[in-house]
Specification:
heterodimer, A: 9 helices, 74% helix, globular, B: mainly alpha, elongated
Chain lengths: 181, 149
């Protein structure tokens, strides 16, 4: 946390080399977040790249306060949400293509990364609706508070908490049913 | 049934390494954007240097400063209104007499001084004013002349 404050201080003082340090520090977390949200590593890397480019370009225009990790995670989530919506529209327009839910475990590239337990988790995460998955991953993995997630998604805090509860319940049942098999 | 804490622990364990391709792309972009921003700041510095070293610019800035100073001096709060000039030697005598009087205030812009000056001002309307007696006498004279005619 102190390191983050130092990075923000240097950033606000105009030290642009700190951008490389920020990228190196958070790249893996952001790629993981985007991959869980989009269930596709290629798209996830594109999202992280876009977020960092926008971040660097706008670096001279704003003063940063608050959590650096939270800010970047929110940016990635917003970008991933936009990309997900665009993909859905594309799928809806193309009627010949069979409708399918992109499941994390269906992606061999993704599943090969994790061990058995995490692979089951990734499969279960892929079964969740996008909104619930987003709330779950932002709250648990990125450490964002419900209030911040609600503001980011432009919904009420009760909706966010409800999505979180539904996501946890569904995830537990999915993991249990998978464990019984 | 898995506890929630177990699920949270599992989720926190998720970690995907970024590919070298992504690293290269982002670092290239950082280098490019930083170089562009430095170039822009250098251009701005050059423009500033041209402005400050140009002869015409210098003269314009100096003239603007002088004009602003003149305006400020003329309408500034520190400037005092000019004192009313005395109209006759009698007033001067009176003023000097007032000034030496120990009981009167010595301030130049005091109330009593202004009062005295106002009283000494010529009042031309007094000469042109006609009183009731003058009017009555004039009317009587008119009637007499009329009867005589």
């Amino acid at each position: 946390m102190l390191e983050d404050k130092l990075l923000i201080w240097k950033f606000n003082r105009g030290n642009r080399d700190v951008l490389r340090i920020i990228y190196e520090k958070y790249k893996d977390d952001l790629v993981t977040l985007a991959t869980v949200l989009l269930t596709d590593i290629g798209s996830a890397e594109d999202v992280v790249h876009d977020v960092f480019v926008s971040f660097i370009e706008s670096a001279q225009k704003f003063q940063m306060t608050g959590s650096l990790k939270g800010y970047l995670a929110t940016c990635v989530a917003n970008n991933a949400r936009n990309r997900n919506k665009a993909n859905q529209r594309k799928r809806n327009v193309d009627l010949n293509e069979p409708s399918h839910t992109v499941v994390v475990s269906s992606n061999p590239e993704f599943s090969a990364i994790f061990d058995e337990e995490l692979r089951r988790l990734s499969w279960a995460l892929g079964q969740l609706p996008y909104e619930q998955r987003e709330v779950l991953i932002l709250h648990i993995y990125s450490g964002l508070k419900f209030k911040a997630i609600a503001k980011s998604q432009e919904v009420s805090i009760n909706t966010v908490q409800g999505r979180y509860r539904y996501a946890i319940d569904k995830l537990r049942s999915l993991l249990n049913s998978e464990a019984k098999k | 049934m898995r506890p929630v804490s177990d699920i949270q622990r599992l989720i926190k364990k998720l970690q995907i390494k970024s590919s070298p391709d992504l690293d290269r792309r982002v670092h290239d972009d950082i280098t490019r954007i930083l170089a562009e921003s430095e170039k822009t700041s250098l251009t701005n510095l050059n423009i500033h240097r041209i402005i400050t070293t140009g002869g015409v610019m210098k003269l314009t800035v100096a003239a603007a400063i002088l004009i602003a100073f003149g305006i400020g001096f003329s309408i500034g709060r520190w400037s005092k209104p000019p004192l009313p000039a005395p109209h006759s030697p009698d007033i001067n005598d009176y003023i000097s007499a007032v000034a030496v009087h120990p009981a009167l205030p010595k301030a130049e812009d005091s109330f009593w001084r202004r009062k005295a000056l106002a009283a000494m001002q010529p009042r031309p309307y007094i000469q042109t004013q006609t009183t009731k007696t003058t009017l009555l006498n004039a009317y009587k004279q008119y009637l007499k002349e009329k009867d005589h005619d």
